[in-house]
Amino acid sequence: MGRRMNALKTAGLVAAALSVACPLCYADTFVIDDFEGESNTLNGKSNAYVQEPSRAIQVRTKDVAHAGLGSLMLKYDKKGKGGPYDSGGWCGYYTQVKSGRNFFDVSPYTKLTLWVKGAKGDENFMVGIADRHWDEVGDSVKSEPVTKYLPSGKMTAEWQQVTIPLSFFMVDLKEVATVAVCFEGAVFPGGEGKGTLYIDDIAFES
Amino acid sequence: MKKKLPKKLPMKNKLCLAFLLPALILAAALSFFMAGAAFAQGVPLEKVPPLPERTQLFAAERQFGYRGKVGGFALKPCKYGVFPDEKVWFPGKNGELPKHAATYFRYKKVPGIPFVGTYIIVMGDLSGYSTMTFWIKGKKGGETFEIGMNDTISNKREDAVFVGSIYRYLPRGVTPEWQQVVVPLEDFFGPDLSRVYSLVFNYNEEGGGEFWVDQLEFHNALLVDRQAEIKAQGYLLLDNFDHSDLNLLGRKTNAFKRLPSICIHTRVPEAAHYAEADGATSSGRSHGTGRGLKLDYQKEAGGWCGYYTLLNQIDGDSFDATGYKAVTFMVRGENGGESFEIGMADKNWQTIGDSVKAGSIEKYLPKGVTRQWQEVVIPLADFGKLDFSQMGSWVINFHKSGRGAVHLDDVILVKKTEQEILDEWDDE
User: Fold this and answer.
1) Which of A170, B116, B203, B262 is buried most deeply by CB count within 10 Å?
2) Among candidates A28, A47, A75 on the partner chain, residue whose Cβ is nearest the Cβ of B9
3) Residue that finishes a domain, picked among B219, B248, B270
4) Is the pLDDT of residue B130 over 90?
5) pLDDT on residue B282
6) B21 falls in which pLDDT band (50, 70, 90)?
7) Are A14 and B39 an interchain contact pair (Cβ–Cβ within 8 Å)?
8) Contact between B186 and A13 using a beta-carbon 8 Å cutoff
9) Residues B406 and B257 in one domain
10) B116 & B241 share domain
């Protein structure tokens, strides 16, 4: 298993190197994270982010997976009041695709995909992408609520694939820094929500 | 295969196919080549892009500096030697590399102020790379130096940015066998990577040594997975004080004081905790070799004094400690009875130049500091409402009037287990 994970990571790193080295030399799918190892494919940092009173934790779990042996479990508790501007703070999860100071060129790709399932089926979030500019200000451009991109139109307790056109984000696709799962108040009734969801196989696809 | 991934690019007509097919073949060929050989080896120094146009260089830098040139600097009686050695070279992992010359380095560092170092001139744009690698072997093993980098500005003021000792990248140190050193270029926070003048080896530890370096290369991808390393061992060794004044995050450490109180810090062998002789830590962790931290203090009624180790990059990223649950370290006093507080500062506390104290050492050592080594374990929760996602420093603060000396070694951040993370969530 270790050899297979290493091979996957090596393949990812090769793809990353190729995307920098040669515009023609990219695979049609680049898996950012399959949550089999401790870091994403690019060895970038990833973690939950929180601003109190909201909170979130992330665990790379081996108990649930869309495919393979693991997935990301996110527990979130987005508050509606308190914190900065009395907006309840914020919470979510980020994974860096920039390598060191080098931003990741996703211009060969047209969509961001990921697999998701909720523990109950009423969970929701937005996907964020930060380019160099948004990375510098510590924020990201958000998608529509993720339920809009689900085949069933709603979150369920079964795995579904989310497909978001990259053109929606209006960021510099040649210099992407992070991809985020953002529990924005706007996706919850009353601006607050609490739940658990699982994510697997975040990828850029052409 | 784990995933069902699309295997082909979308092609809507034959014209598109005719155009893309050669490109795909080229891509596949390049992929194979890159994955097999070139990628594994990275880009050698000679293929790194040149300095950007209009990079300001002194006349001497232009006249005498060229890519690949090796040299050194020393204040007598320190000495160095550096030259290509055709008798020694890295043969490749499988002996596939032909005979060539590695670069031979020799140094002699005496105690005190005299300094010695060597350099390899890069004169190139490294901003497109994420990782630097090279292979190294020592004549005896144990050769040591700090790794630094000069951009074309810092080179003019002879002020390289150092990222720590070679032991930060080779925890078992240099040995008589070839080992690959893998350095993320993001560790060099400060130098303009688009205008790198030289790579510097600073021989900061007394003694002498001989070693060879070969296959200096630069890679687009970040080849270090630090999270996996920390997860595997269950903790982050913040500092063992063995080889560098920088901690093992590559961050600055120093004593602080406001007169009339004073504190002097030194890294000395007498302050080292040797696990076998002095007793292992309760967790079985042991990093006590070489040196430890000695803090000589004189706390008066006025002023303050102590020691800090930075967790954040100065003017850069803060340290995310949300994945850790405790800080531990070894301590003993020269006489016993010494007292101090342990503090931590997040980004906000750092801005005002202070820290939140978990409490006095007696809170964690019921018998207080003694002449015997004891392990101190402090839950991070004891530091109160800090923003652990943006941490700045760990602090020793001598708060009681008096004078004395304490020895510290092996400062460690202990990682939370996944179960502990989940339990924490359920508790709230």
Assistant:
1) B203
2) A28
3) B219
4) yes
5) 47
6) very low
7) yes
8) no
9) yes
10) no
Residues B56 and B204 in one domain: yes
CA distance B237 to B220: 28
pLDDT single digits (tens) B268-294: 999 999 865 555 554 445 554 689 999
pTM of the model: 0.83
In terms of DSSP bridges, do strands B102-109 and B207-219 run parallel, antiparallel, or are they unpaired?
A: antiparallel
Asked, for residue B321, whether it belongs to a domain, the answer is: yes
**Is the same domain home to B242 and B385?**
yes
What chain A residue is nearest to B41 in terms of C-alpha separation?
A: A14
| Nearest CB to A102; choose among B6, B10, B128 | B128
Domains and CATH numbers, chain A: 2-205 (2.60.120.430)
Neighbouring C-beta atoms of residue B128, cutoff 10 Å: 17
| Total domain count, chain B | 2
pLDDT at position B281 is 55
User: Which residue of chain B is at minimal alpha-carbon distance from A76?
Assistant: B425
A12/B36 Cα distance (integer angstroms): 14
Query: How far apart are the C-alpha atoms of B43 and B45, rounded to whole Å?
Result: 7
Q: Is residue B401 part of a domain?
A: yes
Domain boundary among B219, B239, B262: B219
pLDDT of B261 > 70? The answer is: yes
Are B72 and B177 found together in one domain?
Answer: yes
Tokens at A32, concatenated: 């950012």
For residues B247 and B329, membership in a common domain is answered with: yes
Could you tell me which residues are beta bridge partners of residue A51?
A: A90
Q: Is residue B30 part of a domain?
A: no
Which 8-state DSSP code applies to residue B49?
P
CA B100 to CA B135: how far, in whole Å? 14
Measured between alpha carbons, how far apart are the two ends of chain A, in Å? Answer: 28
Same domain, B151 and B235: no
Is residue B78 one of the residues assigned to a domain? yes
Q: Cα separation of B306 and B297, whole Å?
A: 8
Q: Which two tokens stand for residue A196?
A: 């658990």
Is there a contact between B334 and B424 (Cβ–Cβ < 8 Å)? no
Do B279 and B153 share a structural domain?
no
CB atoms within 10 A of CB B274: 16
CATH number of residue B87's parent domain = 2.60.120.430
The residue among B96, B185, B110 whose CA lies nearest residue B147 is B185
Instruction: At B154, list the tokens.
Output: 């810092």
Q: Cα separation of A205 and A110, whole Å?
A: 6
CA A164 to chain B, closest CA, distance in angstroms equals: 16
Phi, psi of B110 (to 5 degrees): -100, 160
> Interface pTM (ipTM) of the complex?
0.80
Q: Name the nearest CA neighbour of B394 among B333, B332, B317, B326.
A: B326
* Per-residue model confidence (pLDDT) at position A102: 85
Q: Are B413 and B321 in contact (CB under 8 A)?
A: yes
- Parent domain of B293: 226-417
- H helices of B34-106, where? 39-41, 59-64
Average per-residue pLDDT for chain B:
88
Q: What is the pLDDT of residue B158?
A: 85
- For residues B352 and B405, what is the distance between their CA atoms, to the nearest angstrom? 28
Mean pLDDT of A121-148: 95
